[in-house]
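User: What would this chain look like folded?
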Amino acid sequence: MIKFTKNRILCGLLALCATLCLPEKALAQGGVEAAWANSLTAMKAKEWAKAHAILAKAVAQYDGRAKTLFGPRFGWFWYHKGYCELKLRQWEAAMESFKACYTKYPNKNAGGAGLDPAAQGSFNFYHKKALLKWGDAAIGAQDWEVAIKMYKKFLQERDPKKDGYQRGAFYVNMSKAHFKLSQVPGGIENLEIAIDNKETFPTPDEGIMVGFQDLVEAVIEKQDEQSLMDFLGKHRSDIRLEPFKMHRFAPVLMKLAADALAAEMERSAFELYALVPSTKASIDDIKARLAQVGTFENPFQDPPRSNRQIEKKVLETDLEELKKQWASGNPYEVIATAATAYIHEQYGNVRGAFAAYEQLELYHSRAKKREEYLYNLVRTSAIIGEVLVTEKYGSLFLKTFPDSKHVESVRSMMLTSLFMEGEYEKCIEVATVMLPKLASPSKQHDICLHVLGGSYYYTAQYDMARKFLDEHVEMYEKSQFRMASLYFQGSNLSRLQYWGKAAELLDVFLSKYPDPGKNIYLPFALYDRANCHFAEDELDPALVKLNRLESEFPTSDIMDMAFNLKGNVLQTQEEWDPSEEYYKKAMELAKRREN
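Assistant: Here's the prediction, encoded as C-alpha cells.
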C-alpha cells in the first residue's frame, strides 16, 4: 500500500491549525487544539500508537457535535486516525475512520455565505483523499471488491490540482485487487499501466515485482498459463531487473516456480526459474555500484522520484548476505538450475538437461547435492551419446564419491556408453574386472554381462562371446537388452558355423521381432539366416531371405555382404550372369563404402 513517510507533509495540516476557530470552552487545556498539536507531534515522530490514542479520544469526545462546532475541517481527525490505524495494521478500523471522514464531513457549500458560523471558511482537505486511503485499508483487510470500488471512486471525484497520489503504487494495488478476485485480464491491465509509466509515475521496481507475484499466483490458481506466457512475452525486460536489485526477489521467484511446477505448469515454472538471478552477477553488480557511489551526504527523496535511487548502506548489507550465500555453495540459482534440468528432461530435451547439470558441476561444485547433480550429468551424457564426457564425469564421480549408492550405476553407464561408441576392447577390459564384483541378478550385472558378450562378439571372439551371451539370455528374460542378446546369440553361433542351432535361434528371433521399425537387427538377422540356408544347401530359402533383404533394406550396412552371398547362391545354382552381376554390385558397394 502507499506509504506515509517522514518527509511528506500531509496537505492541509497548517491550514487547519490557522483556521480552526473553536468556542471558548473547547480551547481549554486538553481541548481539540491540544489534541491536534499533540497527535501531529506524535505522527512526525512515527509514534503511531500514541497519536492514535489522542485522535481516538478526540473523535469520541467531539464527533457528536463537531459538524456544528467545527464544520468539515473536523474530518482531519478521522482521516489521521485512519492513517494511524493503517500504520498499526488495524485495517477494518481504518476503513471505518476513512469512511467517517468522507461521509460525515463533505465539503458541500463549504465556505459559502449564509452557512453556520462553524462551516464558514471550514474545509476538509482530506475528503477525497479518504477514498484513496479507504481503498488502501480495504487492500490490507483483503476486501478486494471494496478496494476496487473506492479506488475508482477516488479517480472519479478527486481534484487533479489538489488530490495528488502515488500513481505507481495506486495501479499496483488496483492490479492486486483484481488478481485476488481471479480477474486476470483486469489485473494485467492495471499492472501494465504501472509498468508502462514506471519512470513518469514513478512505479517502484519493488511494486512491479509485487504485482508480478500476484499475477503468477492468480494464473496458477486459474490454470491460465497462457496469460503468464503472453505477459512475459511483452514485459520480460521489465520483470528482469538489474542484478543488484533482482537478487532480493529470488526467494519469491523460487516459491512461485515451485508452485507452478506442483500445479503441472512446467512452462511457467521454467520461465520463473530462468528469472532467478546469478548470485555472482549480483555480487559483481553491487561491487561496481558501490565503487561509483559518492561520499557526500545527499538526502533521499521519500517517496523516490526515480527507480535509480541507490542507498549505500542497503547495498553493503546486500553484499554481505550474497557473499554468505555464495560461500555456502548453495545460492538460489543452484536449485533453479537443477529444477530447469528436470523440466527439460520432462519435455524430452535431454541435451538441455545435460547442459544444466554440466553448468552445476562447472560453477557450483560445492553444492550440497553435488553427488546427485554429478550422477545426473553422467546419466544424461550417456543418453545423448557424449561418450568422452560420460567417461570424464563418470571417472570424476567414482573418484569423488566412491561410497555412493550410484557407483555401480555410473560404472554401468560408462560401460554402456563405451559399448555404443564401439570401444569394444575397452569394454572387455573394464567389464572383465567389473562383472565378478556385481550382485547377480541385478541391473548392473545385466548391463555388464550384455556388454561383455556383445564386445566379444563384435571383436570376433566368438568362443568367448558364447558363454556370456547364453548366460545373459538365460538369466535376464525381461532385460532392456533382450532383443540384442537374442540376435547376438544366434548370429554368434552362425559365426561358429553351428548352422542348425544358429538357424533355430534366428528363426525364433525373426518371429519374435518382425517389426523393422522396432528391430534394428532385422536386416542382419535376415543375412545370417540366409547364410545358414546356404551353408546347409537350402538355396531357394536363402534367396527368399536375400531378396527380402534387398527389397526392404536396400541401404542397410550389410548389403555389400548380402550381394556377395546372393552371388554365391546364384553361382551354386549355375546362374552365371546374375551371379556375376551381384558380385559386381558387392564390389562397387564395398568400394563406395570403403569397406
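Confidence is low (pLDDT under 50) at residues 1-29, 110-115. If you want, I can go into more detail on any region.
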